[in-house]
Design brief:
The longest helix is centred in the N-terminal third of the chain and has 43 residues, at 52-94. The protein has helices at 16-26, 52-94, 101-105, 109-112, 114-119, 123-129, 133-141, 157-176, 185-191, 195-201, 204-229, 234-261, 281-285, 289-293, 310-321, 323-330, 334-358, and strands spanning 3-10, 37-39, 371-377, 383-389. The protein folds into two domains: 65-142, no CATH class; 157-360, no CATH class. The N and C termini lie close together (8 Å). By secondary structure, the chain is an alpha/beta fold.
């Protein structure tokens, strides 16, 4: 079912109750209240000025930007000193044949290496230099690969799978997210019948490739680490969990913090959620902690923060239970490993069948059947326009 999005331009003297009265006159049997209205001139986050959360988020982002700036400056200084030292050694080496060898060797070792140690950075300096934007961009965009036939440490074929799947996801999201604002929904409904459009509407299967890649790499890296240490230790298991959690959670929580506190300030218009941004009230006040524990898809899923992050919740949960199969395999008990893996497969099939039997009328392409009204004040000249959206 499609949803009707009605945009109305009214004089600035109109208030919310006046608009509600107007809608009740235009439509019969419509239960619309002031809570259903989204006004483009509403203040972000429902108040004038910055909220406390927005101020805290800006302070954190400013600190990170300052850290990157300091790291970049230190990195440039270290590279400059290193370049000067190399040039100095090359310059001195070019004239070594003109200097008496005995005179050179008679100099104290500390004096001959004083220049080198003066350029040797401290551990604190090296730590700050790791935040350099130049160093990070260099690592991201480097294309140098040590490709060898006998190199078993890298799986270059995975890069092609990642790129194809990523393109598939981006194209599908770019088109499907704009369906709600199309000029004619019937064109979309007709296009869905073509084979070419199935590549768009079936893009959810492309996400499965990332689950497969994640499971493959998790198994490979876990087994290799056990073989490297020649035993399964508590330290290995601790690092297995804590390393992945720290690596993902820092950036994940920063994105949620920005989405909750700053997204209301990113746009404006009759269909932009300027009052609360892209996150629901439940995410802001009650369910934000589910993202820290990666259980947002299981606990209060209707209030999950950053809905697109459902993948991270699933992926982290798979990472938690993976050792149940990997530990027996690493210990040489392959029979138990295969039995546990088979059990997981049947549990997945059984859970899907149970859901389908318990909810026989469930639709995988369910959409909300409601009427939303968006109001925009446009001076003293009222204009009414209708936008039919499909959600």
């Amino acid at each position: 079912m499609g949803s009707l999005v009605l945009g109305v331009c009214v004089p600035s003297s109109c208030d919310r109750q006046s608009v509600v009265s107007l809608i009740h006159r235009l439509f019969e049997k419509v239960n619309i209240t002031e809570d259903n209205l989204v006004c483009s001139n509403d203040p972000p986050n429902g108040q004038k000025g910055l909220t406390n959360g927005a101020i805290v988020t800006i302070v954190i982002l400013s600190f990170l930007c300052l850290l990157v700036l300091i790291g970049t400056i230190i990195d440039l200084i270290l590279m400059s000193k290193k370049s000067s030292f190399v040039n100095l050694r090359t310059h001195n080496g070019a004239y070594n044949h003109l200097v008496d060898t005995g005179e050179m060797t008679s100099q104290p070792e500390s004096r001959r290496t004083s220049t080198y140690f003066s350029l040797n950075p401290t551990s604190r300096t090296v730590f700050l230099a790791e935040f350099s934007a130049l160093k990070s961009l260099g690592r991201i965009f480097t294309l140098n690969e040590k490709i060898r036939v006998d190199n078993n440490d890298s799986f270059l074929f995975l890069n092609g799978i990642r790129v194809l799947s990523l393109f598939w996801i981006i194209i599908a999201h770019s088109l499907l997210f704009g369906v709600s604002y199309t000029s004619n929904v019937l064109d979309i409904l007709v296009s869905q019948r073509t084979i070419a459009f199935q590549l768009i509407s079936s893009a959810q299967f492309s996400v499965d490739t990332f689950f497969v890649l994640s499971g493959f790499l998790t198994a490979i890296l876990f087994i290799r680490q056990v073989k490297k240490e020649e035993k399964l230790s508590f330290r290995l298991m601790f690092l297995y969990y804590i390393h992945r959690y720290i690596r993902l959670t820092s950036a994940f929580l920063l994105m949620i913090l920005v989405s909750i506190n700053l997204s209301p300030y990113f746009g404006q218009g009759p269909v932009y959620p300027i009052e609360q941004g892209f996150e629901s009230k439940g995410c802001r006040t009650r369910s934000w902690w589910t993202s820290i524990l990666y259980v947002g898809n299981l606990v209060r899923s209707d209030e999950m923060c950053l809905n697109i992050a459902w993948y991270l919740h699933n992926d982290m949960q798979f990472h938690w239970i993976a050792p149940l199969t990997l530990i027996p395999f690493a210990l040489g008990r392959k029979t138990y490993a295969f039995l546990i893996a088979t059990l997981f497969v049947f549990l997945g099939i059984g859970s899907i069948l149970t859901i389908l039997l318990y909810y026989p009328n469930m639709s995988f392409n369910d959409s909300t059947n409601n009427v939303s009204f968006f109001i925009m004040n446009n001076g003293d000249h009222p204009v009414v326009f209708f936008v039919l959206g499909y959600s």
